[in-house]
Write a structure and sequence with these properties.
With about 400 residues, the protein is of the alpha/beta class. It has 14 helices and 13 strands.
Length: about 400
């Protein structure tokens, strides 16, 4: 069934559906803001209608292009939020008949599938990590098959979708995470953080930056804590800083106490953006041996500060560390392997010379994942979708 396209529709209009962008800052939100920024800079004549489910407004200093329009549903309570958002998705699509829809979360795809069936409007889905793994919902699966394209932030997620749903590899495009290279640079250990945490300037520091959420136990910070006693056998003054906050903190505090590591672990809490680069520069190695990360922008930020970086070998960290070219990949369930890898890196015996060349490491990650590359890839994807639609 196709509804005739209204004559008043903007020829090259794009509708983008996002869960949220501004009032909560997580990996998905940062990625989606990068998507909007890239479109605004590279395709300034493209009319873009942004529908945002959870936010109530946008900052006055962001995305002020005359070609951008925003509709927010976050000011509605509870279930009315979903109802209002769904109503707006459908009515705006029927009214404006955009060239295509960019669906920013797989949870919205059944609606995109319905609109496509009703109107023929093509849609593109962005997938990240755990959101797109082991999908059982029949309508989400139908939506995957009917999508014009699927954009994956990592080859790991792409490969899982192909294997789990027998999707054609030609259907899935890669658009890896990017980062702001101007915010993350190589510099000495900041004195104010050494004083805050009671550390010596030459003291070996391991850092993780993440949410301490009981739902994100796959991040691997507890594995690092369990590895610390072995690490301290070889490097007695090694110190672990775990930056982040969340409801998993009581469990982590209990684990620290059980291992008698109170003097070797600092729970830094939430780190504001203005201090994030300084925290990366405080450490001697950044480690997050996760097993459920879609990609992990923190790896890129740490690499841009010239830091040796450790990730898990079972998730999107494989992409972030370029299959080991930019860092070390370990079995996230093997505490001994984590310990031995960190010991080697801190003793500067790990067989990866690039880890100890901060400026070269920084340039490599910029060349591979910098915003210019991200913008170029996204522009090609959108232009191809506009042509095909």
């Amino acid at each position: 069934m196709n509804v005739e396209k209204p004559k008043s529709a903007t020829p090259d209009s794009l509708h983008v559906w996002f869960p949220n962008l501004f009032e909560f800052r997580g990996g998905i939100q940062v990625y989606l803001q990068d998507v909007l920024q890239a479109i605004q800079e590279a395709l300034p004549n493209l009319s873009v209608c942004i529908l945002d489910k959870l936010d109530t407004n946008k900052p006055i200093d962001k995305f002020n292009s005359k070609k951008y329009s925003f509709t927010f549903s976050g000011h509605f309570p509870g279930f009315l939020k979903t109802a209002h958002f769904t109503f707006k998705l459908i009515t705006k699509a029927l009214t404006n008949h955009p060239k295509f829809i960019l669906c920013g979360h797989i949870n919205f795809t059944p609606i995109a599938f319905f609109i496509h069936w009703l109107t023929g409007i093509p849609y593109v889905i962005i997938v990240y990590g755990i959101d797109a793994w082991n999908i059982k919902n029949v309508w989400k699966i139908k939506a995957l098959y009917a999508a014009d394209k699927i954009i994956s932030i990592s080859s790991y997620t792409r490969d899982r979708l192909i294997n789990e749903h027998n999707l054609s590899p030609d259907k899935i495009e890669l658009l890896p995470v990017t980062f702001d290279a101007e915010r993350f640079k190589v510099s000495p250990k900041p004195n104010y953080l050494l004083e805050r945490y009671g550390l010596k300037s030459n003291q070996p520091v391991i850092l993780t930056v993440t949410r301490l959420s009981s739902g994100d136990g796959y991040k691997g910070y507890d594995q690092i804590i369990q590895a610390l006693p072995e690490i301290k056998r070889y490097i007695p003054d090694a110190h672990y800083i775990l930056a982040g906050k969340g409801d998993d903190q009581p469990r982590i505090e209990q684990l620290i106490a059980q291992l008698n590591l109170q003097d070797s672990v600092t729970l830094a809490g939430f780190v504001p953006d203005r201090e994030l680069c300084d925290h990366y520069n405080l450490c001697d190695v950044f480690a997050m041996p996760s097993r459920g990360e879609g990609f992990g922008i923190v790896y890129l930020e740490a690499l841009a500060c010239g830091k040796p970086t450790v990730g898990g070998n079972q998730d999107g960290a494989i992409d972030a560390l370029c299959h080991g070219e930019l860092g070390a990949l370990v079995d996230p369930l093997d505490v001994d392997a984590i310990a031995q890898t960190l010991i080697q890196i801190l003793q500067r015996t790990y067989p990866h010379p690039l880890m100890y060349q901060p400026e070269t490491l920084r340039q490599r990650v910029i060349d591979t994942f910098g915003f210019a590359r991200f913008q170029q890839t996204l522009t090609e994807l959108i232009n191809n979708s506009l042509i095909e639609s």
